[in-house]
Structure formats: structure tokens, C-alpha cells
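Before relying on records like the one below, remember that each one covers exactly one chain. Contacts with other chains, cofactors or solvent are not represented anywhere in the record.
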Amino acid sequence: MNTSKYVIGLDFGTDSVRALIVRALNGFEEASSVSYYKRWGRHMYCDAAKNQFRHHPLDYLESMQEAVVNALRSLPEGTGENVIGIGVDTTGSTPAPIDKEGNILALRQDLKDNPNAMFILWKDHTALKEAGDINKAAKSSNVDYTKYEGGVYSSEWFWAKMLHIIKEDTIVRETAYSWVELCDWIPAVLTGNTLPDKVKRSRCAAGHKAMWHKDWKGLPPDDFLSSIDPLLKEVRSRLYDKTYTSDKSAGRLTKEWTNKLGLNKNTVVTVGAFDVHMGAVGAGIKEKVFVKVLGTSCCDVTVGPKKKDEKLICGICGQVDGSVIPDLIGYEAGQSSFGDVYAWFKSILSWPLKNILEKISPELSNETEDKIIKEIEKEAQKLSPDDSHLICLDWLNGRRTPYADQNLKGAVSGLS
């Protein structure tokens, strides 16, 4: 009988959920599985021309179950009984409106197809104006509440997105009781602690994206939020002030999810965090180590000791105590797109394949599309930088660092 103990990592990305099963004793990777979001794959609830990208909560729940079950299926029967813990990371800032029971509004029948009632994906840039309003208020305030977030607030982050939705959608504004980050909601669902005042909020998400800091005892105060828009003050009292690092437990698996996932009821679920920060942990980050995590976006992370005279670094995406490793300051920077650029480029090049060749030979079309980027990479390696005078600015989804500005455009110069 297998008596080894295992832990499961769940990574909620832009396109899919990845489940990884690891042997607790030595960190050996036993099995993994990927489940792609079904609705997202059909481009539902998105409008690229308006920079609107939304995820339906059912995509997360269904893909999570599928990924875990499929990963366990490749291992000996009974392995699920020996899983002792689940760790969760997600994209962010990816917030959503919730009711008094902590249910995402899009899970209600009357709001199931309303994009504003869903999770607002990290790369959704519909809140450009609201981010500008927050930055203006922060610079005219006695306290700059963005100073631990690089001194500039982004349209990709919590308050800007929430304000945009409650200004735009009266039904969501009047129905929502509070708001939650995806990395907080998944552990809450798995442990049955979805009531807004029971959800253990991630230090990582709160510190980097919601202006949380111990200097002002939590989230920014009412008077500052009111100076941006009185609507924010109304929500502030139904949010939180206490946060937790990811070495803390969010609770144990509910009976419902024990049955759905094929695990045991004593499985502990950790407090959630953002994907890049946990990716840095997986890469072995420590002091004086700089980690680049490359996915649909590109993120840079490092950690450093806490100091009484902590220096503020302008233009990055935050410096937060315990956001990566407990008792160290986590620093984040990066750019808003990386893998997205390759996907877009491949899509452009594949137009004849999808619109012409696929009608003649679907198999050949798919095979060619799969090889495009790999073949371009091989040829690019043969080129010397001295042979080209092209200069490329990779701000194709707006610039994140330095000084987040999603109004900026990408550019290629030097073409002849």
C-alpha cells in the first residue's frame, strides 16, 4: 500500500488551469494535467477592441476539477487519499463582484451572461480613466497611497477595475455586496469559507494591487477613497483590513470538493497568491536572486530583507512584506504582454492557413500552424544583431514597468 504523502499545486493562468502533484518528502513531480477554459477558448465575454477580457467563474471551477482528476488518474489508485495539501496561485489582479454569501454574481441565473458580473482578467484595460483618477488623487493627498506600488496605479489593478464596473453597471453595483480577488476566492470555495468576512485575503494581492499597507493599518482610508469617487467609500467597509501570507492555511477541503476531486477531507488548502510570486518560489528565489517568469505576460521578481529605512523604488509594481517569501520584502516589475505577442504574431501569420488551406487540408493547416513559431525561432538564431537596425518597443499591451501606462503603444522602427 502506498503510504507516501503528496501535495497539489493549482495554477490558474490566462488560458487554463494546471494541476501538479508532488511527492511531499522530496519534491519529486509525480503527475500533471492541464485543462483549458471552455468559454474563454470560444472568446466569450471578451471584446479585444475595447481591451475587455473577462473569465466566467464556471471556467475556473470546471477546469480545476478536470485538471486534478486527470492528474490523479495517471497515478496508482488511492493516491488522492494521501494528498495532504493544496496550494493555489492565480493571475492578478483578477477581481470579481460577490453577493453576501460570497458567490460571484455571474453564478446567479439573472447575471450569468453579464461580463461585468464575472472576473475581470489581469489584462483587462477597460479602467484606464479610473486608474488616472486614482493617480491624480494620490498625488494630491497628504499621503501617497501608491508609494509602495511604484508610485503609480495601473488600470490592471483592483480599485480601478472595481470602480469602472460599479460606475458603468447599475445592476452590478446594486447587487454586489463586496469584491474578491481570484486568488482569494478559489481557496475560499475549496474550504467553504466564502462569506466575505471569512475569506482569508492574500497579502500578495492586497499589497501589490489594492494599496494595502501596515502603515495605514490596511486598505486606504475612507477620505482618500472618497476623493476619488464616493462609490469606493461605500464598498470599503465591506472589504477587509487583515491579510495573510501563503504559508498560512485557508482551511480544509469541504466534503463537496473532497468528492469532486477524489481527495480526503483533511487536505489543507493554503492562502492563495499570484502566479508570478509563487513561480519565483518554485524557481528557488532568495536574496540577491532575480527571477523572470514568462507567460502571457512577463514578470520580474526579487526579494530583500526588511529595513527600518526601506527605500521606495519608483516605477515598479510594488514592494510588499511577505508577498513572495514570509518575512522578506517582495519586489515585482515586468511587462503586460509576452506570450500574448507570440500568440498574436502566429495568428497573423496563420491567416492564409485558417482561411484558405484549412478548406483544402485541415490536417496540413493545423500541422503547419503548430510549427510556425518553432521554425521562426530556428531561423532567428542564425541572425546577428549587427545585421539589423530594427528597434522594437514591446508595449503591445501597454507598458507596465517603468511607470505603468496602458495608453502607450508598441512600435517597430528601422524597417527599410
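Residues 207 and 239 are 14 Å apart (CA to CA).
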